Amino acid sequence: MIYCGIDWAERTHDVALVDDSGQLLAKRHITDDAAGYKILVDLLVEYGDSEENPIPVAIETSRGLLVAVLRTGKRQVFAINPMAAARYRDRHSVSRKKSDSGDALVLANILRTDMHAHRPLPNDSDLGRAIAVLARAQQDSLWNRQQLANQLRSLLREYYPAVLAAVEPWRNGLCRPEAREILRTAPTPTKAARLTRAQLQATLKRAGRKRGIEEEAERLRDVFRADYAHQPQLVEDALGKQMLALLVQLEAACTAADDLAEAVEEAFPQHPDSEVILSFPGLGVQLGARVLAEIGDDKNRFVDARGLKAYAGASPVTRASGKKTSITRRWIKNDRLNAAGYLWAFASITASPGAKTHYRRRRDDHGDWHAAAQRNLFNRMLGQLYYCLKNHTLFDETTAFTTAPAAAA
User: Fold this and answer.
1) Per-residue confidence (pLDDT) for residue 86, from 0 to 100
2) Close Cβ partners of 238 (under 8 Å, ≥ 6 residues apart)
3) Which residues of 20-58 are buried (b: 16+ CB within 10 A; e: fewer)?
4) DSSP 3-state assignment of 7?
5) CA dihedral 167, 169, 174, 176 (to 10 degrees)
6) pLDDT at residue 314 is higher than 50
7) How many CB atoms lie within 10 A of CB 406?
8) Beta strand 24-31 with 12-18: parallel, antiparallel or unpaired?
9) Mean predicted confidence (pLDDT) in 57-69
10) Nearest to residue 239, comparing CAs of 179, 194, 191?
11) Average pLDDT score over the chain
């Protein structure tokens, strides 16, 4: 067999081809454009790459145009962790020398010696990969929105505590359109105290509020006219300008999160596995799309449910050395899937009687803390999801939690 290693960079890439004995057959330095990709494909074809027998490729990334070109057809592409590649480099040289062409050779030799120990990129469908892009972008936009909201809240605490008291009863607080419209209308507490009932009602209407406008305007007027400490006027005005600049970023983040959520709602129901995923308690469109984005739709990606549980960080890991054995949570995992699993388990406790019974049993009988009990519940439901996706079967409460009816009774 022939093995290919690619050391990728922003502008150029180094390519190395080796045979079964480790002999270097060819090396190239290509550019990151269509011409460079053509040189790479022609080089692979020259050394026997075909549709029936494609040459496996090792590279230190799992995304980008270069990876998209390599994934055409049946070719296996292995995304090698850079830390693992660095350890392999030390096997060949102790002088700690390093070069791009040498790294490409190391990656090719990784496949030659230990291809069985590395996992190729999953063969997901185009729709599944598109949903993954949208779901991850929507998750990133939510994290970015929350980060900006926290920054804005910290700034408002310095000079404008009245608005924090005003938005406290609202869900999502400063991220709501009413809160952003109020801050835009009155960037300082002095201006907020001068707002009349009519102005507050108009502000709420511009934000899209339909009900309870008069009562809410009266409550806001009382909050803004209460007694608060104030910064000096010049300092207050300067802080107001700083707040408006930060508000522009928050509005953009909120718009991006809403737009991406709509895109996920359009794409996710089109996937064949969406019906199975949505049948599970605690999984809606957004959270279900995140789960599908991380596990993919390649049914051969995981050999069994244990592999999926380890990949998600739901199953514990055992460390044994001599007479000492410890069982701890798994730290090396897919962080996105693990975060989605925490929300999934939390929501399923109230949506499923069986899940709630399992959670209470872990807390009361086994003495688990809240996070450990939720992780155990996530671990169990992941196994159920693996079975349902593999057999295209909808979730069934009585089958999933056989002891739930008796315990509930």
Assistant:
1) 86
2) none
3) eeeeeeebbebebeeebbebbeebbeeeebeeeebbbbb
4) strand
5) -110
6) yes
7) 8
8) antiparallel
9) 91
10) 191
11) 91
